[in-house]
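Good morning C.,

I know you're traveling, so I'll keep this short. The sequence:
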Amino acid sequence: MRASLIQIGAEEGESVESRRARVASLVREQAGADLVVLPELWTTGAFAYEVFAAEAEPLRGPTYEAMTRAAREAGVWLHAGSVPERGPDGRLYNTSLVLSPSGELAAAYRKIHRFGFDKGEAVLMGAGDALVTVALPETTLGVATCYDLRFPELFRGLVDAGAETLVIPAGWPERRRSHWTLLARARAVENQSFVLACGTAGTHAGVPQAGHSIVVDPWGEVLAEAGPDEEILTVEFDPAKVAKTRDQFPALKDRVLGLNPPAR
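The tokens, ready to paste straight into the viewer:
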């Protein structure tokens, strides 16, 4: 299976419309890949809190329209990163879109763990309440976003739902880059899954981004890692390795905590 992670920046001076068109062009260039992944909140920048409301769009808004055309023209599964969504209830959400090669909306995931503690995304956006998996012909994706990476119970839930490849778009800051690579490898090892983590480049609202998109195999080995700048990271991996790893080292079968308690 071939995956391309498009690590782009969201620099000031480039309009959302221009960036949307640029990214759509990059997606179309990935024809021949099986899966293409974009970062978190790439239309605005993950830390550009002041523009979230102004640039929020409905689920099937301009970004969906541009990305569905690009996915269809490239013939790829596209994890279109996330956008600031304005839901039917009027609230904002950090929402990821997964599109099929025919351009259909295969899934939407509203980020469950919002970053910022008592400010920023944590107060501006509502929280999702559902785990999301997407069955591809070669593997089942488990979908998470950025700060979710710090919460292992979410990924256990995705694995219980059948996930074999964990896809994590992010706008991760440079000052915590060591956590980014550490946690990506940890989620791969503990869940015996591939991890495809796509970050952003440049600076978002004054916050330098980590970049370093990364692909990790079920043993925790790094198959590919980007640098800090805009880059397309392309890697070939064998989804069958998940089942082989879980069979050779069946640690998941020894789980006790977090499972349904025994009947009394």
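Safe travels,
E.
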